[in-house]
């Protein structure tokens, strides 16, 4: 395992005080919800984004039922994507998350969960913007 001393203080804080835990209104047209699971461990992550009319992410919340690394990954990405465009958010890679959190190889799938959750939330938001006929 990674010695705690190697963690940057800021990063350790994502484990101890996760940011942006909570829910956004799923029925809001400007909210995209992503719900993903990790097949290898059964952990589940829900990540939601709220987008303004300029296509900027103005809010993000998560609920993660999983290990500490998954919770820290979701906390970190909700901070990263706030203020970003949809394209910028979709370009976040799990390797960026893993690097920032100094995740060991066995915990890489935890950061993958966060990347997948962003992608799923973006896809849900985009789907909601397509006008429904009739
Ligand atoms: Fe069970 Fe991640 S393996 S919490
Ligand atoms: Fe499965 Fe972290 S999400 S061990």
UniProtKB/TrEMBL annotation:
Pfam families registered for this protein in UniProt: NifU_N
GO cellular component: cytoplasm
InterPro entries in UniProt: ISCU, NIF_FeS_clus_asmbl_NifU_N
Protein's GO biological process: iron-sulfur cluster assembly
GO MF, one annotated term: iron ion binding
Entry-linked PANTHER family: IRON-SULFUR CLUSTER ASSEMBLY ENZYME NIFU HOMOLOG (PTHR10093)
Protein name: NIF system FeS cluster assembly NifU N-terminal domain-containing protein
Source organism of the structure: Polypedilum vanderplanki (Sleeping chironomid midge)
